[in-house]
Amino acid sequence: MSLTRSVSAKWLAHLVVMAVGFYLMPYVMKTIGEEGYGAWVFVNSIAGYSSLLYMGFGSTVCRFVADRRARQDWDGLNAVASGVFAVYFVAAGGVMAVSAGLALAAPALGDWGDVPVSDVRIAMILLGLNIAIGMLGSVYGGVLIATQRFDLYSAIEAIIAVARLVLTITFLQKQGALVVLGAIFLGVTILENAVTVWWARCEIPTLSIRRRHINRAVLKECFSFSLFTALRGMAVRVIHLTDVVVIGIILGKAAAVPYYVALRLVQMISTPLEKIGDVVLPKAGDMHARGERDGLEGLCAKAMGMGFLLSAAFLIGSVYFGEMFLTTWMGPDLEGSYLILIVLAAAQVIAQPLIILRQALTAIGDVKRPAYIDVAQAVANFVLSITFVKIWGIVGVAWGTFLPLVLIEGLVLFPYAMKALEFHPGHLLAKVILPQVPVLVALTAYCEAIRTLEPGPGWKNVALIAAGAGGVLAASMGWRMLRPRQEVALAG
């Protein structure tokens, strides 16, 4: 699939996932209450740490399976898939052990309010089982991605999101809510992985994950690549999970809700932008293998420009209409969510373009130093979040995320990537930023004009404003693309 089609497929699926998430978050909170929802968010965040055991093998499966498939080395392909599956099988056992330990320690994790500790324990076990099954199934998901069938993978994501929506609306009630939510997550994960296994086998009929295919040499090769991608993945996960856990422990479970709402909104927008990097990875690897440095720089500049434009557009929209949107979406009682949204959205303007450079570095096999940079950022995030939460509350946690990201990624990762990829930083930044300026100026003017009308909360106003902003972006980008052609025509 082409870059445009691959990204479009991922975005379309994420649009479905995002729409479901937009509806479910306020629905779940209103159904089970803010205290129950805070407990669910906290349990989910703790369970999420188990995903650190993925150990970076997701990228390994994608890279090595794609390589073996291109060379039609089916035995080697099966050795990679079987070896990683074996590693994940052991890790899945570790996940269940950790989940059982957390379930036993649940009373020591703080006051759960009116949520029964027995429900908390069952939910932790169900979420642990959910992660364990997802871990094993992810091997087949990696195989499917390696075949570049982003359309199939995205379709599965969309179907699963709709299934989760239907099951939640059908079965969720306040009594036993955590258990019901945990069971729903587990059920859709089983369905998702069953479909993924079937499609992976359709795409590669020779795929066979068996103990007899495990090869020590292949496993050692996979481990050597995965070591630093795992370190990087662990650091990223720690950054994503730390904030809610810190707030939940220090300020209480309910205090995490306003922060989590803003964080989820940013994640819903940033996730489709990160998909650009997922598509860039295999293409960048191919260009690097062919020695196409200029082509690689052009690919990175195009993808980074797209990430910068859309993340900056989200920031502008958040500044002007974020408070109105949050009130429409979740109600008026989430104090602090708006400011947190602005801080986290501003961080994405730096983070999203640099995700492309991270993927380009991965594509050329440079994963060691970027992993160390990520670890430094995770440590700084943790320390600053704990420090700032005691001074400024939940907004301080947002600043504890913002400052390390901007300073470490902007002043350390970017210069390193420029040197490693042999890119000219001035030329690259000019290609990434300058073409987007007229578009962003037009969007800012539109938002300023709409704000003078003082639109109130409501989905109708949100939809109209978003449609208008989309039209301004499309028109501005179209004019930007058309202008060089007109200049060429006039010159001719």
From TrEMBL:
Transmembrane parts of this sequence: 12-29, 41-65, 77-102, 122-145, 152-172, 178-200, 221-239, 245-266, 303-326, 338-359, 397-416, 428-446, 458-479
Primary site of residence: membrane
Record-linked InterPro entries: Poly_Biosynth_Transport, Polysacc_synth
Keyword line: Cell membrane, Membrane, Transmembrane, Transmembrane helix
Keyword flag Cell membrane: yes
Localization, UniProt: Cell membrane
GO annotations of cellular component type: plasma membrane
Membrane association type: Multi-pass membrane protein
Keyword Transmembrane helix: yes
PANTHER family given in the database record: PSMA PROTEIN (PTHR30250:SF26), PST FAMILY PREDICTED COLANIC ACID TRANSPORTER (PTHR30250)
Name the record gives this protein: Putative membrane protein EpsK
Source organism of the structure: Caulifigura coniformis
